[in-house]
Design goal:
Main location: mitochondrion
Subcellular location: Mitochondrion membrane
Low-confidence stretches: none
Oligomer: single chain
Shape: globular
Order of helices and strands: HHHHHHHHHEEHHHEHE
Mean pLDDT: 82
Largest sheet: 2 strands, antiparallel
Strand order of the largest sheet: 1-2
Structural class: mainly alpha
Distance between the termini: 39 Å
Protein name: Sidoreflexin
Helix content: 55-70%
Radius of gyration: 22 Å
GO molecular function: L-serine transmembrane transporter activity; monoatomic ion transmembrane transporter activity
Keywords: Amino-acid transport, Membrane, Mitochondrion, One-carbon metabolism, Transmembrane, Transmembrane helix, Transport
Number of strands: 4
Number of helices: 13
Length: 321
């Protein structure tokens, strides 16, 4: 068997990203919770395989399937722009187990103010880590900016949850069960833009089709952040809308009335089942490597691109996750 050829494009996902199905297959692999069980040695081994291949060095005996496996292991643990290893709970593979636990608890303990505040704080702390870990570009963000984003999002989520809780006090219990979702949606609209405010100030890298960097664009950053906010809210809908309806029905049955301790684990399980599908499918709503027409860019950057590359009509950027 000959050596693996060097013309396999591992800069791009294995499946066609111009189709929703191709993006879904990609994100089912990226968000696979089993990636969390990989050791540091396995991650470094995959990193070495990928970086060596990109440098034109093929690991002896490497097959194409092994190369793609290494690429997805690498992508699951390292930032695509900075190359830094992501903190464990900030990786996309942690989305399902972490959100399953946190969302399940938010939906279970929604009746008392202290538990509402506590679980909204836990959720926004987790979101802050995820949003920072999966930001677009390689621009640094200061501790002060991180702190402002974190405090603002947490305050917004708690205020929304408590405000809606008081408004729904005299409404049917089913309506009250949807308060956590409204709080999460509101917090996403605050947390993500604030956590990525550096991108809104200096822009994110935009490239040509070959990956050659052309400059930084705030317009592209705004479009990318908007797409991420939409994806995150859609991601929360099945997990925070379906279980409350099911639990509202089950809690009226004798089975759960006699076994109230089953409520929390059952809710967490239902949320987890929804998230296994919602997380990759909603990540796939927009291409990871999104595009924007040059005419929509800032005048200065547009002129710079036209001067250097007059034939370029579309540029590309990493929207983040």
């Amino acid at each position: 068997m000959g050596a693996l050829p060097l013309n396999i494009n591992i800069q791009e996902p294995r499946w066609d990203q111009s189709t929703f199905l191709g993006r879904a297959r990609h994100f089912f692999t990226v968000t696979d919770p089993r990636n969390l069980l990989l050791s540091g040695e396995q991650l470094e081994a995959s990193k070495n395989i990928v970086q060596n291949y990109r440098a034109g060095v093929v690991t002896p005996g490497l097959t194409e399937d092994q190369l793609w496996t290494a690429k997805y292991v690498y992508d699951s643990a390292f930032h695509p722009d900075t190359g830094e290893k992501l903190v464990l709970i900030g990786r996309m593979s942690a989305q399902v187990p972490m959100n399953m636990t946190i969302t399940g608890c938010m939906l279970t303990f929604y009746r008392k103010t202290p538990t509402v505040v506590f679980w909204q704080w836990v959720n926004q702390s987790f979101n802050a880590v995820v949003n920072y870990s999966n930001r677009s570009g390689d621009a640094p963000i200061t501790v002060r900016q991180l702190g402002t984003a974190y405090v603002s999002a947490t305050t917004g989520a708690v205020a929304t949850a408590l405000g809606l809780k008081s408004l729904t006090k005299h409404l049917p219990s089913l309506v009250s069960r949807f308060v956590p979702f409204a709080a999460v949606a509101a917090a996403n609209c605050i947390n993500i833009p604030l956590m990525r405010q550096r991108e809104l100030q200096v822009g994110i890298p935009v490239t040509d089709e070959a990956g050659q960097r052309l400059g930084h664009s705030v317009t592209a950053a705004k479009q990318g952040i908007f797409q991420v906010v939409v994806s995150r809210i859609c991601m929360a809908i099945p997990a925070m809308a379906i279980p409350p309806v099911i639990m509202n029905t089950l809690e009226k049955k004798d089975f759960l009335k006699h076994r109230p301790w089953l409520g929390a684990p059952l809710q967490v399980g239902l949320v987890g089942f929804c998230l296994v599908f919602a997380t990759p499918l909603c990540c796939a709503l927009f291409p990871q490597r999104s595009s924007i027409h040059v005419t929509r860019l800032e005048p200065k950057l547009r002129a710079q691109i036209h001067e250097q590359n007059p034939n370029i009509d579309v540029v590309y950027y990493n929207k983040g996750l």
